[in-house]
Design goal:
Helices cover 16% and strands 42% of the residues. By secondary structure, it is α+β, with helices and mostly antiparallel strands. A hairpin with a 5-residue loop joins β7 and β8.
Length: 185
């Protein structure tokens, strides 16, 4: 599927987004932003920006404020989802990919309450490809191919969001990353 937005909501330059079903267990979307990759990477590795980036509205608040700086780092997010048994809940994320300023990705899971963390096998990953000194192609991938059978048997639908979620998230990222001028852009 290809999503094209003719203009951003503030009347800025045309922006094209592509959403692709890569295979049955991976989906991704791509957008080009008019900022250097280092700026995009800094936003993505700041957990406090994740609620503003999230295209579903589920991510409510970053519990951990420290930037993502190493593989294996844990960071938590307060969440809300109307279909979740608790409504409000917390996820634990573990950085799996950190290649400044080209890629960042994390597994999502939960704290079992006894000091153990359980990760569901799905990963969020952003790949950044500089297209020049001030332009970057950003691909967001959601990959659930490593979800084990016992997690799938819990009845979780994959992906657990609609087709516009990735594009919405990239649109929000672009809004955070692209500087605005005094005239609104």
């Amino acid at each position: 599927m290809r999503l094209t937005t003719t203009n951003d909501p503030d009347g800025g330059a045309p922006r094209e987004m592509n959403v692709h079903a890569v295979d049955r267990e991976t989906v991704n979307a791509t957008v080009t932003v008019a900022v250097p990759a280092a700026r995009v990477f800094a936003i993505l590795t700041d957990p406090t920006t994740h609620p503003a980036i999230d295209g579903t509205g589920w991510v409510q608040k970053s519990v951990d404020q420290a930037p993502l700086t190493e593989v294996g780092q844990i960071f938590r997010m307060d969440m809300y989802h109307g279909d979740h048994p608790a409504g409000e809940y917390q996820v634990v994320n573990k950085v799996e990919v950190l290649d400044p300023p080209r890629a960042v990705g994390w597994l999502t899971g939960q704290d079992k309450g006894d000091g153990r963390l359980e990760f569901g096998g799905w990963i969020w990953r952003y790949d950044l490809r500089p297209l020049g000194p001030s332009e970057t192609e950003v691909t967001l991938t959601y990959d659930w191919s490593a979800v084990p059978r016992f997690v799938r048997e819990r009845g979780i639908r994959f992906p657990p969001f609609g087709p516009g979620h990735l594009a919405d998230s990239l649109h929000h990222l672009a809004e955070l990353a692209e500087p605005r001028s005094a005239t609104g852009r």
